[in-house]
Amino acid sequence: MISKDEVKKIAGLARIEISEDQIEKYQAEMSAILDFVSELSKANTKGVEPIRQITGLESIFKKDEDRGLLNQDSGNALVNEAPEHKNNFVVVPEVLKGK
Amino acid sequence: MSQFTNLTITKARELLDDGEVSAVELTSHYLKEIDSKNKELNAFLSVHAEKALASAKGADIKIKNDQASYLTGIPLAIKDNILVKDELCTAGSKILENYKASYNATVIERLNRESAVILGKTNLDEFAMGSSTENSAYGVTKNPNDISRVPGGSSGGSAAVVAADLCLGALGTDTGGSIRQPASFCGIVGLKPTYGAVSRFGAVALGSSLDQIGPMAKTVKDVAIIYETISGHDPLDSTTVPNNSKLLDRVEEINIADLRIGIPKEYFEAKGLNSEVKEMVMKAVSWFESQGATIKEISLPHTEYALAAYYIIQPAECSANLARYDGIRYGRRADAKDLLDTYLKSKGQFLGAETQRRIMIGTYALSSGYYDAYYSQAQKVRTLVKKDFMEAFEDVDVIFTPTSPSTAFKIGEKTADPLEMYAADIFTVTANLAGVCGLSLNCGKINGLPVGLQILGPWFGENLLFKVGEFYEQLR
Q1: Is the model's pLDDT at A99 over the cut of 60?
Q2: For residue A35, what is the domain's CATH number?
Q3: A52 pLDDT higher than 90
Q4: Average model confidence (pLDDT) for chain A?
Q5: Which residue in the set A42, A50, A78 is minimally distant from B376, CB to CB?
Q6: A97 inside domain
Q7: Could you say which of A39, A55, A90 has the minimum Cβ distance to residue B195?
Q8: Domain range holding A34?
Q9: Contact B384 A45 (CB under 8 A)
Q10: Which of B135, B236, B282, B332 could disulfide-pair with B130, CB 3.0 to 4.6 Å?
Q11: pLDDT tens digits for B408-460?
């Protein structure tokens, strides 16, 4: 069973604000899920490598140049879908507080 | 009954090419059907009527000029986590409520190249996480076979619109069974392609090492036609595999009588498997045996750990992928006092419970001190699951299993307990973990509810699945 404080900490790490009621609900549900997935510790994986890429492809490299695959206008359209934007830039809330 | 009732892509192609019906007529028919039936089913989230008719007009010109290919003028539906330029793409989430796609997914580009007609976007569990569409922020989709039941998920909307005859085919996505399980629940055909067979460019990312876009339709042949169009290497998705052989030679020469079918005991002896579902699937197995196929009991020994491994790897990848919905770059931003508060409130207010839960499980599994016990161990188990399949496919051509342990369940029946919902994926997650392809097709009904037979094939063995599926569909 994970504690309420752990749930709070994880929610904080995941940047999700949750209410006291939700903490209680998630505590029970996440504990049950973590109990279930803990079965994995029983699997014998001695000497087994974790999988990195399922079809066996290695890193694919490409030249750092415009391959002409995408219409550049779509970049502008993408920025326009941000909740706040100005002159084709995404507007971000203040990060560093000035004095 | 009109000439369009239970029409397939194959049959519609003939009608279009013979000039018996135009693409505009066909499209108008489906738009009318959607108008009258979608309210009850809640399967389409948006319908692009004007655009659909315009592209149908274009298709008619192509057909007239003898430039038609298989999908020219064929009305299709798209799951709402695949980008269609200038159209809303909600991914079933409140956070993307008004989000408009600024470009097309590669699969959409490929459909457009053939002048297929896109009717609209279909409902899904939020960000494709769920097995019932009950996690959609836009309400549950109803199963056309029984509207008190779920259509399965997460591609429940796409399965329902095909089953309800509101289009000729659809695209879904499958991360742990999200094409095959709803196909099974709704009584249609669905394919989870081999990882790397279809470009994921323009699909809303969930579990990037597991996700595949795939076709859903009424027949195996129709699924094969859509697959042929959307599959292949894409420079915009480096995980697509160039020049995969698709086992063409083997498929050419194979007959039903020399087919070797594996029956994995871990699936058929699974605890939660409904006995009637088991019986129905075994009936399909017996049919193949009666046709001369060799049935072999096989073992996929790490199956018992697969679901647990999946429910670590998938949430881990989801927690990384969904970090982008931070109230800054996409969709909605909550009122907040500073930057951190913007993140906290946007994710707190606009993401649903299942999504929040999985992000948190993923965050936990990847956090310092737990990584080795959870994520790393799960990836090792994944290696073992893949090895199970590699060994099995040395002895058999395909593997038969039930697609789901049960038929479609009641709306609300499993929402209280996430683990019970996760158990619905027990027979489908293995294909995503191992990267192999899987086809679900109907093999009968129990009390009016469809049962799905899952046929698993080796990496890039899609054509083999189509051939085996067509044997069954046409001859049984």
Answers
A1: no
A2: 1.10.20
A3: no
A4: 90
A5: A50
A6: no
A7: A55
A8: 4-41
A9: yes
A10: B135
A11: 999 999 998 888 889 889 999 999 999 999 999 999 999 999 999 999 999 99
| Per-residue pLDDT reduced to its tens digit, B121-176 | 999 999 999 999 999 999 999 999 999 999 999 999 999 999 999 999 999 999 99
Residue A3 distance to chain B (closest CA, Å): 13
Write b or e for each residue in B90-117: b if 16 or more Cβ atoms lie within 10 A of its Cβ, otherwise e: bbbbbbbeebbbbbbbbbbbbbbebbbb
B178 is catalytic: yes
pTM beyond 0.80: the answer is: yes
CA-based nearest distance B180→chain A, Å = 20
What is the number of CB-based contacts under 8 A between chain A and chain B? 177
Given pLDDT bands bounded at 50, 70 and 90, which one contains residue B248?
A: low
Partner residue opposite A26 with nearest CB, options B333, B360, B417: B360
Number of independent structural domains in chain A = 1
Q: Under an 8 A CB cutoff, do A36 and B328 touch?
A: no
Distance from CA of B270 to the nearest CA of A (A): 16
Tens digit of pLDDT for each residue in B374-421? 999 999 999 999 999 999 999 999 999 999 999 999 999 999 888 888
The answer to the question of residue A93 being in a domain is: no
**Which residue ranges form the domains of chain B, and what is each CATH number?**
2-230 (3.90.1300.10), 250-302+383-475 (3.90.1300.10), 306-366 (no CATH)
In a domain, A32, yes or no: yes
What ipTM was assigned to the predicted interfaces of this complex? 0.93
pLDDT digits (tens, 9 = 90+) for A67-83: 777 777 778 888 999 99
- Residue A66: its pLDDT value, please? 80
Q: Do A70 and B103 touch (CB under 8 A)?
A: yes
Q: Do A81 and B195 touch (CB under 8 A)?
A: no
Q: How confident is the model at residue A61 (pLDDT cuts 50, 70, 90)?
A: confident
Q: Which of A24, A25, A40 to mutate to test the interface with B (most CBs of B within 10 A)?
A: A40
